Amino acid sequence: MADRIRQYMKYIDQLLESEEEMDWEEEMKKHLVQIAFFAHERMIHLIVTVTFAILTVLIILYTFDHFSIPMALLIILFMGLMIPYIRHYFLLENSVQDMYEQYDKMQAKAGKASFVRVGKYKR
After folding, report:
1. Where does the chain have alpha helices with state H?
2. Which end of the chain has the smaller Cβ count within 10 Å, N or C?
């Protein structure tokens, strides 16, 4: 998924840099569909990440009263899984936010008034 997001965003950046005439209305419709796909993926990963975080906290609390080596290993396993889940969620979150900015730039190219000024919110 990470590669797909990066490739798609690179494709849109290339379109925005291009000086060719194109149907920006159609490109904006396609872009909104992709934003919806990635936003849905972001929501699913948020649910998974929060669920894993809650389970990790519950396991840690349980282990305080009932310590055992397998429970300690389970905590380490869950903590190890949290790192990639959080990294992937933040990739999705930041990418969708960047896609919103790309959409605003597309609106500017199409000659439409944008909700926010393009380039106002740079990272």
Report:
1. 2-17, 24-65, 69-110
2. C
Contacts of 93 (CB under 8 A, 6+ apart): 42
| Domain residue ranges in the chain | 32-110
Contact 100, 123 (CB under 8 A): no
- Model pTM? 0.79
Asked whether residue 118 carries a pLDDT value surpassing 80, the answer given is no
Residue-wise pLDDT tens digits, 11-29: 999 999 998 888 999 999 9
How far apart CA 21 and CA 15 sit, in angstroms, is: 10
Cβ-based neighbours of 49, under 8 Å, separated by 6 or more: 82, 85, 86, 89
Output the pLDDT for position 1: 83
Q: How far apart are CA 30 and CA 20, in angstroms?
A: 18
